[in-house]
Write a structure and sequence with these properties.
The complex is a heterodimer of chains A (107) and B (196). Chain A is mainly alpha-helical. Helix content of chain A is 74%, strand content 0%. Chain B has 196 residues and is mainly alpha-helical. Classes of the chains: A mainly alpha (107), B mainly alpha (196).
């Protein structure tokens, strides 16, 4: 086995259980907020913030990203750059309307 | 021929080859789902009308599925932790629970799909259902892929524990990375498709 001692792993198991609890609470919050029927822009913001927190918890603790090698961070930084680019391209196309056509509505 | 760097780390990356390979694979998976999320944004922003997910789909079913998938992520990481603590029995229990929960997820998804298809709301019905079936279908295929790998590691693949404990533990960690990624995708899919 590697540098992880049994005590270290036992400590990690306690952390996993706490993260599990946090993920459940955040899931309930996500669903609860959806029943308030906020305006779409606000609902999108809240839903994505909560989902990002949940996703980060999974990545940091379950996927052990908190204690990972630098090369993986660099791979992920590159991925995030391309990801953000891909997310914003559609919004650019939406702002470039053809005159005389029916404009789409945002949200 | 012996496969290099299955246990010991490569001097240049500081990682075993399998782990680095899976992270690169996951990076490509991020871009695959990004393309679909991007399509979703393009379709939604460009449409004159778009239905609310909570009016079209079953939020309680998706909520249960979210709980199921998060729980399966915990059992997956516990399977790895059990091997690290040299407890093969508990590993089998936790990985078995992960596989079982994966099936629960798929069964719930089956009922959800069946309901919509019987109501005539297939991918052909409108753009919303087209993107819903495409993204959740691709995610479902990832679940099936995870079940195949995890079932192999639970069954015949577990023989490796007797001969190469550390390598087997690494395999479980790597399978876990994939499984947590599948969970992570669902964490974003759930609010985007069902709640907005």
């Amino acid at each position: 086995m590697d540098a992880h001692s049994v005590d270290d792993i036992k400590k990690s198991v306690r952390t996993y259980m706490m993260i599990f609890g946090a993920l459940m609470v955040l899931t309930i919050i996500t669903v609860g907020v959806s029943y308030i029927h906020l305006p779409v822009a606000a609902a999108v913001t809240v839903a994505l913030i909560v989902a990002t927190i949940k996703g980060s918890l999974v990545a940091m603790y379950f996927m052990h990203l908190l204690h990972e090698r630098k090369v993986i961070y660099w791979v992920l930084v590159l991925t995030v750059i391309f990801f953000i680019f891909m997310m914003f391209v559609p919004l650019l196309t939406n702002s470039d309307k053809i005159p005389g056509t029916t404009p789409g509505v945002i949200w | 021929m012996e496969i290099p760097y299955t246990v010991e780390v490569r001097p240049d990356t500081g990682l075993s080859n399998g782990k680095f390979g899976v992270w690169l694979f996951l990076a490509s998976e991020v871009m695959l789902f990004a393309a679909l999320f991007s399509s979703y944004i393009l379709l939604r922003v460009g449409s004159v009308e778009w239905p609310h997910g909570y009016e079209e789909l079953s939020v309680p079913m998706a909520f249960v599925n979210t709980v199921v998938l998060i729980t399966s992520s915990v059992t997956m990481v516990m399977a790895w932790a059990s091997l690290k603590m040299n407890d093969f029995g508990k590993f089998r229990l936790y990985l078995g629970a992960t596989i079982l929960l994966s099936f629960v997820f798929l069964i719930i998804k089956y009922f959800e799909y069946a309901h919509h298809l019987h109501a005539g709301e297939g991918p052909w019905y409108n753009t919303y259902y087209a993107i819903y079936f495409t993204i959740t279908g691709l995610h479902g295929l990832h679940i099936i892929g995870g079940i195949v790998v995890n079932a192999y590691l639970w069954g015949p693949g577990a023989k490796m524990w007797k001969t190469a404990k550390e390598q087997f533990t690494n395999r479980i960690e790597i399978a876990g990375l994939y499984w947590h990624f599948v969970d992570l995708v669902w964490i974003f899919l759930f609010p985007v498709l069902y709640l907005l």
